[in-house]
Amino acid sequence: MTNTSPIERTGERPGASNSRLPEFYRTMRRIRTFEERVGELFVRGQSAGSMLHLSIGEEAAAAGVSAAMRPQDTFTTHHRGHGIFLARGAEPARMMAEIGGKEAGYCHGKGGSMHIADMGLGHLGANAIVGGGIPAVVGAGLSARHHASGAVSIAFFGDGATGQGVLYESMNMAALWGLPVVFVCINNQYGMGTRIDQATANTALHERAAAFGLEAMSVDGIDVEVVADAARTLVEGARAGRPGFLAISCYRFYGHARKDKSPYRDEAEETAGRLRDPVGHARARLIETGLAAQAELDAVDADVAAEMDATIDFTIAATEPPLASMFRDVYAPDEPEPEPVRTRIDRVLARD
Amino acid sequence: MIELTYRDALRKALADAMTEDPSVILIGEEVGRYGGAYGVTKDLIREFGPERVIDTPISEPSIVGAAVGAAMTGLRPVAELMYVDFIGMTMDQLGNQAAKIRYMFGGQIGVPMVLRTQGGTGRSAGAQHSQSLEAYVMHTPGLRLAMPATVADAYHLLRQALRRPDPVVFIEHKALYTMKETVDLDAEPLPWGRAAVRREGGDLVIVTYSRQLHYVMDAANRLAEQGVEATVIDLRTLNPLDFDTIRERVNAVGRAMVVSEGVMTAGVAAELAARISEECFDYLEDPVVRVAGEDIPISVSVALETGSVPGPGLIAETALRLTGKRAAA
């Protein structure tokens, strides 16, 4: 790997003997099932937001990169980040409660799907602005170097963010300063309804990163082991001061958001795209290599289904945040809260 | 007591903060080797090294965004935006990220960063380097906003900003950098968020901030010669806004005028005038008058530039009319 010749990896996997594939399968199944339950929450009218972006089809990106991260590492995600957060150890019930806008959620119902965060797990925040979370990892990288913490900071974003200037600014800064930062582009082929080849002439996205002097790789996101292998190389390179970029190619199985039926793409394409299934791929490989039997995997699936079913029950039972909490956390806890409009009106109208 | 310029005071505030707190870093265009476009960070790179005084490419959104990420992970960054006119470039990182992170994330973390910038007219710098855009900031909950008018405040407000738990936008005025004052920096400063009453008078209250304070004080001296005594309030910070001081003074005097260099429509002066009109209604003898920037871009022509913003003449004339005295011809 060099700065000037980005590489595309197509089939490198570790040997079966020390395979982490069973663990990856479980992580990916948890993501898949969680996302399915998010969809169900929406259908049942229990989701606080209408803006739900599912990462079905992108599970290998989340599981593979997450496996390369250490506890001190930090990350930001985009609007399609449920899977990444789960893979980093999020509690699904608290995630679901946040998506449902409930007090028990990670952000007490104020963030929801697109603004979920948890400092304990190094999650510096999901983002509803395309590319909005990218420059924060440059700052986290400066911080890691300043404090000699050994932490790497990873920005996860979609192919849509490759149209945003902040990505290029941030890649340039990371390369210029040799920061412990990795940019992970989950290329699901679509920015909302616009296919990547309708948005850019050169779809070899990793070449852009190489042009900035980043260690750049591109992998097929159907194979979680390939993703994990590339991610390990890049994350450890970043830890040693060589920032990286990983493009992971996959297919967004469903629409941009819950209500989007994808009228802009034809059925044949969708059918073919959904065959690029990282969960199914891992399952087939586990069976084929003898690492797991079908019955064992069925048991994992059932276990995960029960876990994720419980998240819906938890969310439905959870309470809304108290109305007065609306004024909390605009500023730090010791600062006066903003004065409610009603109080201000009352003062104006309370004339002698 | 020492004699300092506004620029020296800012530089000293940065140097003192960096000496006291190793987590303070500077990041921005030309802050290091060049020493800052207006010289505020001159030689700090020699004193504190390139790891703490970081020269950046010309990438305003990511300068602010990097400061956000650094602030979330244990540093106390001072990002510099060379001109406030460039704030539009950074508005996502500032308005959608820095301002909202504490709230969106349910209070888990704050963004204790300072965004230093400068604005205003006075250098014939044209429409894209002369604006007063503080209303953009004041209109965004979550951002604190400081605008020092004096040398002492340049020092103290910047030191205080660097101890605040929330993001502070710190807007200097480009026409004040060479202003000198003899100051005692050891004297106890006013608390953060408190307005300063710079002058007392019983005929009207003039509320202002930043460079306009000096025009208002000049006008107030002229007014005194004509028997009109003004109370002058220098807000110092626009968020927090010390409305208690305004209310108390306006209620006592019964007449108010707001002076701001920003354009009049939907500006800071509009907000202040609305609040004074609402909250001091029963005490007001006359309408609250705004003296503010014209609703036009700033020209390079010195005559047009100067004519675009309030000056002592317009301020004094307006005060005389408001108080019922005839304007001096």
UniProtKB/TrEMBL annotation, chain A:
PANTHER family: PYRUVATE DEHYDROGENASE E1 COMPONENT SUBUNIT ALPHA, PYRUVATE DEHYDROGENASE E1 COMPONENT, ALPHA SUBUNIT BACTERIAL AND ORGANELLAR. The pyruvate dehydrogenase complex catalyzes the overall conversion of pyruvate to acetyl-CoA and CO(2). It contains multiple copies of three enzymatic components: pyruvate dehydrogenase (E1), dihydrolipoamide acetyltransferase (E2) and lipoamide dehydrogenase (E3). Residues 27-318 form the Dehydrogenase E1 component domain. GO terms for biological process: pyruvate decarboxylation to acetyl-CoA. CDD domains: TPP_E1_PDC_ADC_BCADC (cd02000). It comes from Amaricoccus macauensis. It catalyses: N(6)-[(R)-lipoyl]-L-lysyl-[protein] + pyruvate + H(+) = N(6)-[(R)-S(8)-acetyldihydrolipoyl]-L-lysyl-[protein] + CO2. The lineage of its organism: Bacteria, Pseudomonadati, Pseudomonadota, Alphaproteobacteria, Rhodobacterales. Its cofactor is thiamine diphosphate. Keywords: Oxidoreductase, Pyruvate, Thiamine pyrophosphate. Its EC number is 1.2.4.1. Residues 1-21 are annotated as: Disordered. This is Pyruvate dehydrogenase E1 component alpha subunit. GO terms for molecular function: pyruvate dehydrogenase (acetyl-transferring) activity. Signal peptide: none annotated.
From TrEMBL, chain B:
PANTHER family: PYRUVATE DEHYDROGENASE E1 COMPONENT BETA SUBUNIT, PYRUVATE DEHYDROGENASE E1 COMPONENT SUBUNIT BETA. It is an enzyme of class 1 (oxidoreductase). It comes from Amaricoccus macauensis. Its cofactor is thiamine diphosphate. The keyword Oxidoreductase applies. SMART domains: Transket_pyr. Residues 4-179 form the Transketolase-like pyrimidine-binding domain. Its EC number is 1.2.4.1. It comes from the Bacteria. Keywords: Oxidoreductase, Pyruvate, Thiamine pyrophosphate. Pfam families: Transket_pyr, Transketolase_C. SUPFAM superfamilies: Thiamin diphosphate-binding fold (THDP-binding) (SSF52518), TK C-terminal domain-like (SSF52922). The keyword ATP-binding does not apply. This is Pyruvate dehydrogenase E1 component beta subunit. GO terms for molecular function: pyruvate dehydrogenase (acetyl-transferring) activity.
